[in-house]
Amino acid sequence: MDSTSIHVDGRYDSNDDDPKTIKLVRGYSRDYRPELNQVVINLITENKAGIPVYMQAASGNLNDNEGFKNIVKNHLSCLNADQQCSHFIGDAALYTAETIQSLNEQGRLFISRTPQKLTLVKLAIAEQENHAFVALENGYSGVWLDSDYGGVKQRWLLLRSEQAMKREQYTLDKRMLKDSTTSLKSVKKLTRERYSCALDARKSLNKWIKKQGYTEIIDIEVIEHLAYKQSGRPKQGQQADRHEYQITGQVYCSLTERQARLQEKGMFMLATNDFSETLAMEKMLGLYKSQQSVEKGFRFLKSPDFLTSSLYLKKPDRIEALLMIMTCCLMVYAALEHKIREELKTQSAYFPDLKYKPTQTPTARWVFFCFQGLHVLTLSQDKELVINLKERNNIIIDCLGPIYQKIYC
Q: Which pLDDT does position 309 carry in this prediction?
């Protein structure tokens, strides 16, 4: 299960008190369009083909934690009775005390990523040197930990990824460089300022320190200056008209802080209430990664080729109807793509990809593109012929079986 948002253009009346109607309002925008109203799509797919099994349109300002909790409480039991799924998988938004309690009460096995902000997760990552990690495939290593978070007995899997660590280290260094550059500019402005009293100077300094992410300041001094109303050199023995105070200090990026941040990189925690021996570390990680199937569905729904990256309908109920139609399109698309890939593997056949290299995992979008330009030539009243068929088209037609062969051949 996951969610995404689609922005909508135009003005909408959000004063409707009907609880069944979604509200088109501003919220957290995943499309980087915070100035526009939006609608949220909650989607559940199966993990092999990405076929959607549940969709719910929600108000644009709905929090993921709250939305997931309501779905688990009100709808998941019906879905379980029909689908008979083994594990319910979600990202960190699924992992709240109320939600996992509800899943456990329903007898549902779940796999979820735990939020990094949890104190217990932070403590486990900080004490990683005390754990005996087991090497896994593709640069991963992991260790089992016991937990009863939310009053639910569960297993936590602390994972370390070498690839993620390198990627996040690069991001950290880039962020630190940007932060230090900004800090140098701001500290120059700070040290040029003159204050009427030392207390004001200290307050300004403390305010600056709170805004810093990776930059620190040492050798701090508040220097007193004598100020005169008249310009030029003061006369001998002339009394100052006022006193001014200036801040001085040296700015630096702490390597100790960087090292502490690096220890957190490439680390993440998965949680499950499945204690069976069949759920090994590799299997649990693989099941969690299969959540990418729902992300793939979102990419399809928001693709420019689908022409629904933004919506122009005026009524919220019509937008809900359109989202349902879009989900049905995704269902057909995902099922057809899965069937094509399975049949290619079964028949040991290959389909040329964009670079004309043979593949057994083509996207349905590419297959659709390859079927453009076909025409029906009518030879007589009873005879028609499909022209412009190429060899790559026949590969797909043979995989899909007699019904498609009858249409094209």
A: 53
231 near 241, Cβ under 8 Å? no
- Kind of pairing, strands 215-227 and 242-253? antiparallel
pLDDT in tens, 195-225: 889 899 999 999 998 888 888 888 888 988 8
Evaluate whether 408 touches 397 at the Cβ level (below 8 Å): yes
Q: Which two tokens stand for residue 292?
A: 């990418």
Structural tokens at position 143: 């260790």
Read off the pLDDT of residues 68-108 as tens digits, 9 standing for 90 and up. Answer: 988 888 877 777 655 667 889 999 999 999 999 999 988 88
In whole angstroms, give the CA distance from residue 93 to residue 113: 8
Contact by Cβ (8 Å): 360, 351? yes
* pLDDT tens digits, one per residue of 127-173: 888 999 999 998 999 999 999 999 999 999 999 999 988 998 898 88
Q: Which residues contact 102 (CB under 8 A, 6 or more apart)?
A: 69, 72, 73
Evaluate whether 42 touches 56 at the Cβ level (below 8 Å): yes
Write the CB contacts of 375 (distance below 8 Å, at least 6 apart in sequence).
386, 387, 388
The set of residues, in sequence order, having a beta carbon less than 8 Å from that of 361 and lying 6+ positions away, is: 341, 344
Contacts of 33 (CB under 8 A, 6+ apart): 7
Helix/strand/coil for 249: strand
Contact 172, 265 (CB under 8 A): yes
Output the pLDDT for position 229: 80
Nearest to 100 by CA among 288, 274, 268: 274
Contact yes or no for 386/340 (Cβ under 8 A)? no
Beta-bridge partner residues of 310: 7
Band (409; pLDDT cuts 50, 70, 90):
confident
